[in-house]
Design goal:
This is Starch-binding associating with outer membrane. InterPro entries: SusD-like_2, TPR-like_helical_dom_sf. This protein has about 475 residues and is mainly alpha-helical. It has a single domain (about 40-245, about 330-465), classed as Alpha Horseshoe (Serine Threonine Protein Phosphatase 5, Tetratricopeptide repeat). It is built from 20 helices and six strands. It has helices at about 1-25, 40-55, 55-60, 65, 90-115, 120-140, 160-175, 195-210, 215-230, 255-260, 270-275, 285, 305-310, 335-350, 355-370, 375-385, 395-405, 410-420, 445-450, 455-465; strands spanning about 70, 145, 155, 240-245, 265, 330-335. Strands 1-5 form a two-stranded antiparallel sheet. Strands 2-3 form a two-stranded antiparallel sheet. Helix 6 runs antiparallel to helix 7, helix 8 (about 195-210) packs antiparallel against helix 9 and helix 14 (about 335-350) runs antiparallel to helix 15 (about 355-370). The chain is globular and about 65 Å long.
């Protein structure tokens, strides 16, 4: 009897052991990588970043409409600022930024800390993660930062804390990155050229310093001088532009993919009229002639119209974005040489560094023109010498703000941030917009933050202000 019981127990244990083995296998994802590789994570992060920044929800369905680079010609709700906090136009930037980009970049950093990836991987991940956090705080304001990945209900940091924290992260990235260090792979932007990553780090420091300049002038000055004097330098030519170059379908530029199947957008009347007034040679790059050949000139669509009024402008009588932006291989541009030069012009104008603000300003415009294929010296000179283009030292924010807005065409999120900071050009809300004549100053927090992280969400809006599109963020002083 005893032997029978023992045999039964032994058989039962074997059975349960077998079941457990099977259950373990059932819970394994056969397509998942058990040991992630930093090079794959880096490639994926760069591609996701490009799709997010250059795509619909963070770009041409929100920020490009806010800054009146693009306009809706049908389905104009977002061009009239009719958003719900559950709409993908609000949630995609947040969800992709945190759940995909920051998660994967944090993994690269942890692999480096564990010894499974070298310091150059960690430095690039810190740089790219800083860029992600920057576009998030520029869009929403106070955001989770120091507790990201450490809590399912992370506390929010103030925008000031995020900016200053990012400056520290970038300092660390600069010390980690070494052109003589171990090589990295998976870098589909700079092809493993660490010297260019080091230039990007200093350029990001310049960008953040100018974001905080109206609030923390001393820190901004200190940061800019450190970046300018760093031996690694800044982005110093159009060859250094930080951009993701797409390939053929299905890995094509998301703006090109959109126009393959949809016809919802046109270039905004605001920027077409400005470029026309200035005889700007970038106009035929930024816009196409209407398909109705009888029109014979570039015609932008007005922002903020009702659906019917927008449709009545005529699909064939208005200008689509230029083919420069709508080919499969059109790049997703993150940071340009032109932006660096505009930043240096402003730094001189603010008294932070020595030099000629006007010279940097002219060089910035020239770099932008060259970036878009306008290289004829006489054409460039003729443009710079126009009264409407010449640098105005008495109102540097107007000169830099208007030309930076033009140069940023397509870079909706950063154009939106710089327009709020410099207050130029002076844009006017469309006639059917719903914010009582105001334009957006931020994005809504996703509605899921209220339901899943409610206490911290409430603390954030108590600090920052009500969760409205018109609430000004900390950096947006004027």
């Amino acid at each position: 009897m005893y032997k029978n019981i023992v045999s039964l127990l032994a058989a039962t244990l074997v059975l349960f052991s077998s079941c457990n083995d099977q259950l373990d296998k059932i819970n394994e994802n056969p397509n998942a990588t058990e040991n992630p590789y930093p090079n794959y994570l880096l490639t994926g992060s760069l591609k996701h970043a490009a799709d997010l920044y250059w795509g619909a929800d963070a770009g041409f369905n929100t920020s490009l409409l806010f800054v009146q680079h693009w306009a809706s010609i049908q389905y104009t709700e977002t061009d009239r600022y009719e958003f719900a906090n559950s709409s993908t136009s609000v949630t995609t930037l947040w969800n992709t930024g945190y759940a995909t980009l920051i998660t994967d970049l944090d993994k690269i950093i942890s692999l480096a800390d564990e010894g499974s990836a070298n310091d150059n991987y960690k430095g690039t991940a810190l740089a790219l993660r800083s860029w992600v956090y920057l576009i998030l705080t520029d869009a929403y304001g106070d955001i989770p930062y120091t507790e990201t990945g450490k809590s399912v209900t992370p506390a929010y940091n103030t925008q000031k804390e995020v900016y200053t924290g990012l400056l520290s992260d970038l300092e660390q990235a600069q010390t980690l990155l070494s052109a003589s260090g171990e090589a990295i792979s998976g870098d589909v932007v700079y092809d493993g050229d660490i010297s260019k990553w080091k230039k990007l780090v200093n350029s990001l420091r310049l960008r953040i310093a100018l974001r905080i300049a109206d609030r923390e002038s001393d820190l901004a000055k200190q940061t800019i001088n450190a970046a300018v004097n760093d031996a690694a330098g800044l982005i110093s030519s159009n060859d250094d532009i930080f951009q993701f170059v797409y390939t053929s379908s299905p890995q094509q530029n998301p703006q090109a993919a959109r126009f393959e199947t949809r016809d919802d957008y046109r270039v905004s009347k605001t920027i077409v009229d400005k470029l026309t007034d200035l005889s700007d040679p970038r106009l035929p790059v930024y816009a196409q002639l209407p398909t109705d050949t009888s029109v014979g000139k570039y015609v932008g669509a007005a922002n903020g119209l009702s659906n019917s009024d927008a449709n009545n402008q005529g699909f064939a009588k208005t200008s689509k974005p230029g083919t420069f932006f709508l080919t499969d291989v059109s790049p997703a541009v993150f940071y340009t040489y032109s932006e660096v030069l505009f930043g240096l012009a402003e730094a001189v104008a603010r008294g932070y560094i020595s030099g000629s603000a006007e010279q940097y300003y002219n060089q910035a415009i020239t770099a932008s023109l060259n970036q878009f294929g306008i290289t004829n010296a006489s054409e460039v000179s003729e443009y710079l010498n126009q009264a409407g283009v010449k640098y105005d030292a008495a109102n540097y924010k107007k000169s830099i703000g208007e030309q930076k807005w033009i140069a940023f065409f397509g870079q909706g999120l950063d154009a939106f941030a710089e327009w709020r900071r410099l207050d130029y050009p002076q844009l006017v809300a469309g006639p059917s917009s719903v914010l009582e004549g105001q334009l957006p100053s931020r994005y809504y927090y996703p509605g899921t933050e209220q339901s899943l992280n409610g206490d911290n969400y409430k603390k954030a809006i108590a600090d920052q202000g009500v969760d409205l599109l018109t609430t000004k963020l900390w950096f947006d002083v004027y």
